């Protein structure tokens, strides 16, 4: 069985047989024990995340902590399968299916090459071009790995090889710089849209458990100014602290133009996908407010359009493993968070944290909580695990201290994305890009820390000011 299962089982047993705080019930304490054991098992990864969470879900049922299906005598109580009917979970599934269309048709690669062809005459411009392409694709591709690792990384490597920059002695010519820029830009674009990262809808659901509603439009409005500023500043900071040996890159623009010529005119599938993408952005932006069409319904409409016009087939749908895997672990973690909230555990933790910071103003306490939350990611290899373990407790603490609910929910949400470039294992596109071997661990961690601090400062100070200006708090 090994440590991967042994350690989580021991943790669960310790919680099961240990005394709990007087303010908590046996049910709440034992639910927390299974939750912690599940998170530890996800981190140790003896099995895929979906399989681990299914085991955790059944453990809650077999131990009587939650029933498998709704209790007719207590219809509001949590149950094991509650997450599978959550509309936010289906939003992320549909977004994964939409992203399959971008990859299948080659539309995502065309967009990236287009931006590089326009601004790629300088190495800094190449970085900006890749960041802009990531930004354009991010609302419809919820996998940071798919965008950063599947679309941007191959183009980034092509640029590096154009200038004979390979892993090893020549990595500093171009590849080392571009790897770090793509990773950091990817984490920023993940923060800018509800549908840009698989964990974001989970955040929205967790915030909803504390009475904070985050719509697609609200998320994007709060992120647009700090996100765009970070996309400009962070690549420039990396350029200053870790400059590439090559500065002028006229051949890159020529390479991108040549590849675009080889692609030829837009295919039928690309045209349908492009038109669908525009419709989706419009409906995600104003559909809920003006037409009463939710973000999830909009995503379903987009997938249906792609199927009707044969851009996607049913085989494409059922073979999109990432969508169904995400749905599984997402639903289970949502259920566990719902149960912890219903049984009073989240309120208790929030009160404990708030009590330790009670002498501070809500603004000072909120900033301190955000900084702690951000740097705690050094201990996580998954953004989702971090979100599941800490988001709702830290948000609850901020609310208990009197911080504005929507501001608090959003600032923790944005930080749940930008920490994905801190380390080479932090999640998102970082492992894929680091795996290209252009950077050492020391280089990645050093630049990641500097860029991370700059990005965090932008999101806290500029972001909070912007959200106040537009009336989000």
State the main characteristics.
single chain, 473 residues, mainly alpha
Count the strands? 0
Give the low-confidence spans.
none
Q: Encode the helix/strand succession as letters.
A: HHHHHHHHHHHHHHHHHHHHH
Q: Which value, in Å, is the CA radius of gyration?
A: 22 Å
Distance between the termini: 50 Å
Largest sheet: none
Describe the structure.
The chain starts with a helix and ends with a helix. Helix content is 72%, strand content 0%. By secondary structure, the chain is an all-alpha fold. Among the domains are: 80 residues, no CATH class; 235 residues, no CATH class. The model has no long low-confidence stretch (mean pLDDT 88).
Summarize this entry quickly:
The protein is mainly alpha-helical.
How does the SSE layout of this entry go?
Blueprint: H1 3-17, H2 26-44, H3 49-62, H4 87-105, H5 107-119, H6 123-137, H7 144-162, H8 175-192, H9 200-209, H10 216-241, H11 250-263, H12 268-291, H13 295-308, H14 314-319, H15 321-342, H16 345-356, H17 362-375, H18 383-400, H19 405-418, H20 430-434, H21 441-469
